[in-house]
Design goal:
By secondary structure, the chain is α+β, with helices and mostly antiparallel strands. Helix content is 22%, strand content 35%. It folds into two domains: 32 residues; 118 residues, Jelly Rolls, CATH 2.60.120. The protein has two helices and twelve strands. The model has no long low-confidence stretch (mean pLDDT 87). Bound molecules: manganese (II) ion.
Length: 165
């Protein structure tokens, strides 16, 4: 009898824990929808030749002859994304808020969000940007800039961007 009671109690505690977790997930979803936290100034609007929608870039660390690494922040409004492009020395992305997408050519689109860290290998075509409903705050790190920073290609068409499920 006593062990039955223990089992019943355990089931109730588990059910409560699952219910709490569910409501916490809903809170996170809600938090994703609200305005994003900006750590750095918004910067300048990216050119329509290299971005679809509204994206803003601010340089935070300029590369020099000793530290040949460039660091900056891009804020993508919902629906905004980069063109296809590649980096001669690769790139690291650190997502500080929001939800977005990253795709390496030939691979499925990855969902990225606050806390995601992404490595883009050198000379590999890819694009990154916000989701349709929620913007994205993205820190970028470009190492070894003496090899080059970015080579821009064509825009990411809606049918590719909206294929994300
Ligand atoms: Mn990139």
């Amino acid at each position: 009898m006593k062990s039955n009671l223990t089992i019943v109690c355990t089931i109730i505690i588990c059910a409560l824990a699952m219910a709490c977790n569910n409501s916490r997930n809903q809170e996170i979803m809600k938090a994703d929808k609200k305005e994003l936290a900006a750590i750095f100034p918004k910067g300048e609007k990216g050119l329509s030749e290299t971005f679809t929608g509204n994206a803003y870039n601010i340089g935070l660390v300029d590369a020099d002859s000793i530290l040949t690494t460039a660091v900056g922040n891009v804020y993508f409004e919902p629906g905004a994304r980069s063109n296809w492009h590649s980096h001669p020395a690769g790139q690291i992305l650190i997502i500080t808020d929001g939800v977005g997408y990253h795709q390496i050519e030939g691979r499925p689109v990855e969902i990225i969000k606050k806390g995601s860290v992404v490595k883009c290998p050198p000379n590999v075509r890819h694009w990154h940007g916000a989701s349709e409903d929620v913007g994205l705050q993205q820190l970028y790190i470009v190492p070894n800039t003496e090899k080059g920073i970015v080579n821009w290609d064509e825009a990411v068409p809606d049918e590719v961007y909206k294929s994300v499920k």
